[in-house]
Amino acid sequence: MHRPRPAVGVSVAVLIVAGVMSGGGTGRASADPGSAGTLYVNHDVACSDTGAGTQSAPFCTVQAAADVVEPGQTVRIESPDRHPYSGSVTLTRSGTRDAPITFTGAPLGVGGSQAVLAWPGSAPALTLKAVHDIRVESLTVTYDDGNGVAVTGSEGVTLDRLSFARPLLPATGTGTAIGVDGASSDVTVSRNWVGDGYAYGVRTEPGAARVTVTTNVVSTPRQGGIAVSGTTGADVTSNTVLAPCAPGISLDGRSSGTVENNVVASRAAQQSGTCPAPTGPLYAVSADSADRISSDYNVAANGIGASARPRPEYSWAGTSYATPAALRDVTGQGGHDIDGLNVPTLAAPSEHSPLIDSADAGAVGQLTTDIDDVPRVDDPLVADTGTGTTTRPDRGAFERHDIITVPNGDVPSPVTGVAPFVTSLKTGSSSSWGAPLTYSIDFGDGGAPATGTPGAPITHSYSTPGRYNAKITVTDPDGTSRTGSYNEAVAGTATPPAASLSGAADTTTEGQVNAGYARFTLAEPADAWEVVYRSLTFGDGSQENLADGAREVPHQYPAPGTYTATLTQTDRLGRITTAKATFHAADAFVAITPQFDTEKTIAAHGVLKLSAATVRADSDGVDAAQLQIVTSAAKASGSLTLYTHGTTRPGTSSINFEPGRNARNEATVKVTPTGSVDIYNGSSGAVTVNVATVGLQSHAQFAEAYHPATPVRLLDTRGATGGVTGPVAGGHSVTLTAAGTHGVPTGASAVVLNVGATTTKASGSLTVSTHGNSGSSVTGPYWTTGQTASAQIVLPLVDGKVVLRNTSRSSANLIADLVGWYGPTASGSQFQPVTPVRILNTHTGAGSGKIAKLGAHATLKLKVTGAHGVPASGVSAVDLNLTVPSPSGTGYLVAYADGTSRPGVHSVDFTSGHTVANRALVKVGADGEIDLYNAGSTSVDVYADLLGDYGVHPVG
User: Fold this and answer.
1) pLDDT digits (tens, 9 = 90+) for 431-454
2) For domain 404-492, which architecture applies?
3) Which CATH number fits domain 588-698: 2.60.120, 2.160.10, 3.30.420, 2.60.40?
4) Cα 900 vs. chain centroid, distance in angstroms?
5) Is pTM beyond 0.85 here?
6) Is 545 exposed, middle or buried (0-12, 13-18, 19+ CB in 10 A)?
7) What is the CATH number that goes with domain 830-951?
């Protein structure tokens, strides 16, 4: 009894059997009765082979779904990322005639699928074992060397729209893409595409019954394209086989059935040394099958050109025939066959080809659509030579269609505008067959499409801001259609998206700062889709073009200074918005273990050049060095001026000296890009200098910030302050805790102190050392008998303590005042060096506004911000050198922030008749001023030389 064959569907998806990945858990899954007839497989998302197989909780493997699917259900195999499913899959569960089971891929258009099944072993990638009423569609199968799909002992099976990729081991050429064994019946093999490298495209074995092979493409088989053996009721219809070497279509073993509308081509260009000289015919029907086969309306395209190897087009009952006419004359078969053609590509025939409208529309197994699922239609430009009244199919698997020209890539007019935005779209289209056309335009905004007859442009209003890609679909009366896309139209917002820019200096998690390295932050703008271009200029001559989205843009500035970064943003309507941020590139403090770097004698009015290596300023981004200078063996009184090599010597002084006395001071000096520093001897006599580096300032290193303190006394041996009472004997030391007290954290890396000696019994000096590091020390003040002397020092810390040693032969009381500290915290200040400049000279009235000494017990207010390179705001401290020239009495100065209480500390101690200078890091008041208080009993002149400033300048 002849079982009705299942109908052939029109699904377009592709499944690639690339491997089955295992999911979580073990055990058998159960079908979900609430899954609306569909089980899902998707290993690109959270999945489980023991779950219900819903779309939200799919199976991980195809086999898991195959083991539980019920009649009437569909197994949908997905993989949005196209990751292969690896493993051989066997289908053992059957449907019913009224409720078949379907396995399908998730289509990606014609001939493509999200799913991939790949099997590297010798077993078939997919086996249908003793099943019935099964449909497998829209899959692509790839494997190494076995069979692709094997149908064994099954009936009522449809294999539709499968794509077989080139085998991973194509050189062997032993696999069969689709095999049907002798125990199977009622099998339809339709619209499949078999790539080259297989032994057989489709192969049936003796005993099979009622097998329809229709509308397939088989490319370059090694042994046979479609090989039917011992099969009753075999219908081979409308296939296209490219067979340069092997037989294209063959039937033997007492097979019965029909062979119609097929195209078998043999390209001369593919008859290479990789295959033997072809001796097999394009069509072959054995003697035991010849009287059971009907053959007509086929094409034998045996190539053209001198390079084509001779081969018979037909072998019928053991006799070769070179032409259809010869076959027809002897056997009566192939009465409508044609030959003498060249088939250049596996595609639809060219216009006016003899293949067009020349097939038998009533052939058994003839489909109403071709391999690409487009309908069989009548070509009005070609005379009909086939059969049929409603359709005029072409021979082979491909159908020639009307070539419809649509406006693809056409530009709306205008392209952009502010919503509501009206634009015009062209509709002009043409048909190669001259057929009347209709169009439908989807404007891409969710509104109803517009329909009409191609010709005049059509207008559309986009009411909501956005980017829109309209599509036009043009259709002819046969249902052939083509879709084209317009260029993007943009309906903009009423105002352009605002630009946003902020930033900060780069810091580490430990709190160190790279004060010249900015990290700018760009927020995602509102209506980000509207922005097409962003660029960030950094204010130093460089810029960066930016990609979409929120992002952080780092930038290393070349030198300290104030820079304005500008974000420029252009939207799709050409409107420009900007945002600005001001960044104060500055320096961070690099602590240096002090050591004497050089000792030289400078002749009268001579200049000593110190190289970068000498002052240890040859590392990344160093802009200034903090130096300790000690003078000795002076031949005459005078002063030294430190300044940047290659620049004009400023009218400032760094240290004052006189014969018979040693002098010391610390000074901050800008360096050249190569680090060179000049020291000018302003005396009429030579002087010996000893220079040590106590710190560096760099804009390109992660280092420490400065924290100015309200000056406070840490040690005074005249009382109990600091835990030591009474004078310190000559040659003895005291240890002072400088960190972990008075706001200085235990992790501070360096401390700034004013250290001094008083009630001195003999001349001497003070040495200050880092506790826990015997090699780290600086020289404090020098004094003569009975003199009170002080000096500001910067000293690295190890354990938070410092050691003060009295180097005199006799005792002295020692004093230490906290000025500030360096350390890794986010709230610190960064340094900006300036060209040295005298900002106060009471002798000339500069800075004070009048020519007058600073009176005894009087206070002078000095504005230190807003001039000479110092910012007008954000300044926390200034780096000064304070000088008291030739005082007529003895006393000291106190420098402190204006608007605060005067601290009981010393900034400069002076003695009658002796010019003295001392570095002073002075905290700045909120009004940008500092106060200088004369604690002496006589009026004195005061000089203040500015060396730089410390500030906290957020990006603004």
Assistant:
1) 999 999 999 999 999 999 999 999
2) Sandwich (2.60)
3) 2.60.120
4) 52
5) no
6) exposed
7) 2.60.120
